[in-house]
Amino acid sequence: MKIIMLGAPGAGKGTHAGKISEKYGIPHISTGDIFRENIKNGTELGKKAKGYMDAGELVPDELTCDLVVDRIHQDDAKNGYVLDGFPRTIPQAEALTKALAAAGEKVDYAIEINLDDQVIIDRMSGRRVCSCGATYHIVNIPPKKEGICDKCGKELVIRKDDEPETVKKRLEVYHKQTAPLIDYYKNEGILRVIDGTTGLEQGFQDICAILDQK
Ligand SMILES: [Zn+2]
């Protein structure tokens, strides 16, 4: 069961990937974790990646792909894996397809969590956080008193990442760089789309229905 998660930032890819990992006993693999792990362990690939990061440059697609392929060939991924945040661009997807084909492998499913931009903007702009670490949402998890943390009484703030302008910029990058992957995997015949508006529980049931077909 080799799975790629697709969808806009804020659509819930990471959450669903975590739940898939737990239910099906396959690792949830994110590029952020792979980078951290390799740099911490001082691997050859990690050293190369760190060189780019220290210079403030983007890690090239091929190196990122090498790191991912190295990770998915570790023992715990023998029965499959769920990739979250990779591939992010068409060249990365092509590099992954090629590297897997060289090992006689291929991805089984690319699952897209489909959600309108406006829904994402509304969801994210409703988030509020407290410096104590508590998180809220003005509609879904409101504090007892508006704008005030239930736990410590401090004033709640909007994170920079959740500000509508920031969210819109991230969505623009997504539509330009990552959304073309939806067509790419459609052409490969492995795209499955779930409706992101139905909520986390229903969304996960829809994913399980897809994965349990085999
Ligand atoms: Zn607080």
**Topology order in helix (H) and strand (E) letters:** EHEHHHEHEHEEHHEH
Low-confidence stretches: none
Instruction: Record the strand order, biggest sheet.
Output: 2-3-1-4-7
* CATH homologous superfamily placement of the domain at 2-115 and 178-211: P-loop containing nucleotide triphosphate hydrolases
Extended strand count: 7
Strand content: 5-15%
Features of the shown structure:
alpha/beta; binds zinc ion; Rossmann fold; two-stranded antiparallel ribbon
Q: Overview of this structure, please?
A:
By secondary structure, the chain is an alpha/beta fold. Helix content is 48%, strand content 14%. The chain has nine helices and seven strands. It has helices spanning 13-24, 31-40, 44-54, 61-72, 90-102, 117-125, 164-178, 180-187, 200-211, and strands at 2-7, 28-30, 81-84, 109-114, 127-129, 135-137, 191-195. A five-stranded parallel beta sheet has the order 2-3-1-4-7, sandwiched between helices. The chain has a two-stranded antiparallel ribbon with strand order 5-6. It is globular and about 55 Å long. The mean pLDDT is 93. Keywords: ATP-binding, Cytoplasm, Kinase, Metal-binding, Nucleotide biosynthesis, Nucleotide-binding, Transferase, Zinc. It catalyses: AMP + ATP = 2 ADP.
Briefly, what is this?
The chain is of the alpha/beta class and 214 residues long. It has helices at 13-24, 31-40, 44-54, 61-72, 90-102, 117-125, 164-178, 180-187, 200-211, and strands at residues 2-7, 28-30, 81-84, 109-114, 127-129, 135-137, 191-195. It has a domain at 2-115 and 178-211: P-loop containing nucleotide triphosphate hydrolases (Rossmann fold, 3-Layer(aba) Sandwich), CATH 3.40.50.300.
